[in-house]
């Protein structure tokens, strides 16, 4: 008997699942019951190797007692306190700890931090801060936002407006935004380890947007340094540098959405450090608390922050915030997570594993239907040829097959994305490649 058909198992009817084919799932559910280290255990008692750090978030691995204990202590000391016109020390402590690792160098550190509850909230917060900043420096006509095709910035109205995924956009109205072309180009950049050679010139799209709309209408440009959710798109060499230069030239704020790349995914604290290009604002979530408690954080430069710290005495500088901004339990989880990252060297571990990871994953080249493999840090994208008239079906079959054999992967369209916890051992990289390779062989 399946666990979900046991006498006391809950009915599957009431829970409306997010980003899920509800009817398909409920006909054949996949249920996780527990997790520890690199593994989940399903409700049937099967172990599943986590090839995706949950959803790009469990960077320090599962079941970290240190995080659980910190959250428990905090909930018993102070479970909640309002953060509007009130404070609690742990939120200031966590912000200070984040400021210590914030990128940007001594002179331009992005060390002013606004807390949110998720990646989507971080993105909408960053976009609002950018528009408020422009207004505060006398650039009130700048409200247009620039995103990128195949960008994913969560599901708020701001995020879907700058995002570039048609399914997230077509049903909903949006705020004024335009989009750079994406940088994915298999004809020039297939099977690359690290940054592809070709495509820096695509950043010049931003000049076209300036010519089309007028710089005086554009507040900010937001991109993921490495696009994750839309299939692992690594920026071509020189691309981010060029985007930075064009933004600076035209007074446009540059926002890096580091919800996936933040906290060690590329082998440094942030992608900003990895690529050596510093934006004005960074959005984060996920690895911020190791996925244990929902939370996001927006890192702002002092230039952005200080421009808003004006106005009459007692005036609220930014009319924005969430009931759960700086939630004590989330801050406790975040501080414990940072301790683990520091003590176990996890923010740089992906750099040490990167070469072996890339070699292992690229060995899947040549398997049936594989048309591209790309890797950077501890991320991999494996692109499959789509079946005629059935985009996404082949990768979905591989996903289900892998899950049944004991490996969790993630698929978007016909692209498989891998992003294991940063605690992964070399032997487990081998297990991922072997299980995935077998599934690819079986997927006709
Ligand atoms: N931004 C990026 C780059 C993401 O990858 C995600 C989620 O995958 C989000 C924003 C949204 O985060 P959340 O699902 O926590 O709202």
Automatic annotation (TrEMBL):
Q: PROSITE patterns, per this entry? A: AA_TRANSFER_CLASS_3
Q: What is this protein called?
A: Beta alanine--pyruvate aminotransferase
Keywords, A to Z?
A: Aminotransferase, Pyridoxal phosphate, Pyruvate, Transferase
Molecular functions per Gene Ontology: adenosylmethionine-8-amino-7-oxononanoate transaminase activity; pyridoxal phosphate binding
What cofactors are annotated for this protein? pyridoxal 5'-phosphate
Q: Which branch of life, at top level? A: Bacteria
Name a biological process GO annotation. Answer: biotin biosynthetic process
Q: Does the keyword Transferase apply?
A: yes
User: Matching Gene3D superfamilies, A to Z?
Assistant: Aspartate Aminotransferase, domain 1, Type I PLP-dependent aspartate aminotransferase-like (Major domain)
Does the UniProt entry include the keyword Transcription? no
Which organism does this sequence originate in? Pararhizobium antarcticum
Q: Which family does it belong to?
A: Belongs to the class-III pyridoxal-phosphate-dependent aminotransferase family.
- Tell me the InterPro entries matching this sequence: Aminotrans_3 (IPR005814), Aminotrans_3_PPA_site (IPR049704), PyrdxlP-dep_Trfase (IPR015424), PyrdxlP-dep_Trfase_major (IPR015421), PyrdxlP-dep_Trfase_small (IPR015422)
- One short Pfam name that applies is Aminotran_3
């Amino acid at each position: 008997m399946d666990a979900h058909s046991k006498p006391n198992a809950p009915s599957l009817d009431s829970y409306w699942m997010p980003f899920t084919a509800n009817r398909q799932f409920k006909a054949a559910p996949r249920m996780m019951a527990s997790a520890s280290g690199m593994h989940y255990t399903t409700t049937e008692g099967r172990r599943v190797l986590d090839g995706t750090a949950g959803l790009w978030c469990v960077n320090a691995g599962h079941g970290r007692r240190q995080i659980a204990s910190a959250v428990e202590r905090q909930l018993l000391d102070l479970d909640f306190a309002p953060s509007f016109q009130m404070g609690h020390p742990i939120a200031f402590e966590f912000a200070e700890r984040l400021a210590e690792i914030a990128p940007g160098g001594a002179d331009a550190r992005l060390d002013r931090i606004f807390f949110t509850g998720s990646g989507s909230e971080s993105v909408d917060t960053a976009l609002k801060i950018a528009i408020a900043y422009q207004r505060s420096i006398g650039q009130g006509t700048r409200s247009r936002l620039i995103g990128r095709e195949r960008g994913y910035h969560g599901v708020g109205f701001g995020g879907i407006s700058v995002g570039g995924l048609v399914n997230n956009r077509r049903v909903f109205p949006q705020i004024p935004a335009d989009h750079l072309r994406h940088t994915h180009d298999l004809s020039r950049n297939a099977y690359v380890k690290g940054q592809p050679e070709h495509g820096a010139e695509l950043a010049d799209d931003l000049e076209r947007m300036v010519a089309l709309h007028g710089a005086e209408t554009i507040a900010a440009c937001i991109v993921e340094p490495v696009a994750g959710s839309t299939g692992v798109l690594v920026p071509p060499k020189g691309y981010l540098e060029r985007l930075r230069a064009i933004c600076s030239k035209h007074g446009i704020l540059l926002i890096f959405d580091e919800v996936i790349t933040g906290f060690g995914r590329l082998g440094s604290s942030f992608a900003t450090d990895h690529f050596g290009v510093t934006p004005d604002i960074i959005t984060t979530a996920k690895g911020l608390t190791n996925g244990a408690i929902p939370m996001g954080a927006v890192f702002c430069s002092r230039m952005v922050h200080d421009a808003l710290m004006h106005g009459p005495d007692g005036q609220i500088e930014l009319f924005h915030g969430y009931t759960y901004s700086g939630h004590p339990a989330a801050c406790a989880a975040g501080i414990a997570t940072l301790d683990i990252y520091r003590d176990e060297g996890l923010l740089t571990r992906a750099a040490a594993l990167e070469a072996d990871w890339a070699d292992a994953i690229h060995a899947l080249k040549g398997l049936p239907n594989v048309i591209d493999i790309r890797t950077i840090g501890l991320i991999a994208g494996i692109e499959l040829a789509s079946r005629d008239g059935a985009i996404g079906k082949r990768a979905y079959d591989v996903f289900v097959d892998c899950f049944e054999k004991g490996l969790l992967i993630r698929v978007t369209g016909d692209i498989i994305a891998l992003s294991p916890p940063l605690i992964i051992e070399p032997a487990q990289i081998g297990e991922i490649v072997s299980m995935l390779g077998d599934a690819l062989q079986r997927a006709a």
